[in-house]
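Appendix B. Chain record.
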Amino acid sequence: MRVLALIVLSSFCLQAHGQSEDEKMIKTIFDEALLNGQAYENLDYLTGQIGHRLSGSPQAAAAVEWSYQLMGSYGFDTVYLQEVMVPHWVRGAREQANIVNSKKFGTKSLNIRALGNSVGTGSAGVLGNIIEVQGLKELEKIGKKGIEGKILFFNRPMDQTKVSTFSAYGGAVDQRVFGPSEAAKYGAIGVVVRSVGTVMDDFPHTGTLRYADDQPKIPAVAISTNDAEVLSKALKDDNNIKFYFETHCQMLPDVLSYNVIGEIKGTEIPEEYVVVGGHLDSWDLGQGAHDDGSGCVQSIEVLRLFKQIGYKPKRTIRAVMFMNEENGLRGGRKYAEKAKENGEKHIAALESDSGGFSPRGFGMTGDQSEIDKLVSWRPLFEPYGIYDIGKPGGGADIGPLRDQGTLVIGMEPDSQRYFAYHHTDNDTFDKVNKRELELGAAGMASLIYMIDKYGVK
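Structure tokens predicted for this chain:
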């Protein structure tokens, strides 16, 4: 009731006094983004000229230099690099997989991709009988006797009945993240995981796994949704078929990389910081366009828009290009560590890491009074299709700031297409719509403007 009352009162005040100063400023921001925005052009360069950007790779290093130079060219007050050591995992030669001695298929090739941080099989590959399961809980029931020496096939799909695809993703991704070590506990020699995606196609979805320190590290791959169905049907026809897969990935020593930070200094309260950011790294498939090139160029665009329209913030506004969200979160942790070490007061942080689709709202985690305040601004955003404000949310890279009392906010675009591209060869620039990307950048800039002007307390 309290939140509803705030919205009604805010809406009444806007109607009573005509177009407010904030309405005018937000319209100015959206007009500039839609008429003269540069986010789409910048994304074209990042994805087309640099490409995918896995931590530790030459492309990641090129992306660091590009974003540093770009923010400098926009005349931000300060642009600098923040050192962070990152993992250096390499995929190696193209993966191979085959169903072997199937009654129906004979030998049939399937589409797989190694999961991030996985150990490789080497040229010998892994060959064995394969067992299909729907989730981690089934392993205890089957037991070591039924699993030892075999390959485990996790085939639980995303729940298509969930309207929020991120909720569906959360309900399926545990088998990818924890499945390999759970399987190793029972003596499995390898793991195959159904791609965590919403569509039936031939693109395997990679993504990170987490090996438990007390279990053997066994190789793990994602299989495309189409081929997961093929493999499942083959097993139903003959549960004695064998499966072969070969990967050449390996983890190399950590390397030095950087978060890239640009800022506009506050004119009244410069010691208070408001952060907007995305992660500069991506998986080594596709071009990392939606995940998370879009979030990076939108975050840079927030500061560029302020410069372009002549807005001088009260507080210091930072755009942060975080490094290593995908397979380590080293950049987000380092940023929070340095903020605490330097005694910086971050009142709010906004992350865009859900694709460059039409903005629909902002999820947030913080004190209830802070959330209520942002919810009260909803009437200002509704004319731009942004209406879902106040439910729980945040972001992986800004999450570590929450321990310092920072209000963390996640940009929430329309989610229906994201998991068609997520972590695949299909995450390319042509899948991003210019207008949707610009609307997202403008929405982010508008929220940052409101936070800067009024604070969150």
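Further analysis of this model is presented in Appendix C.
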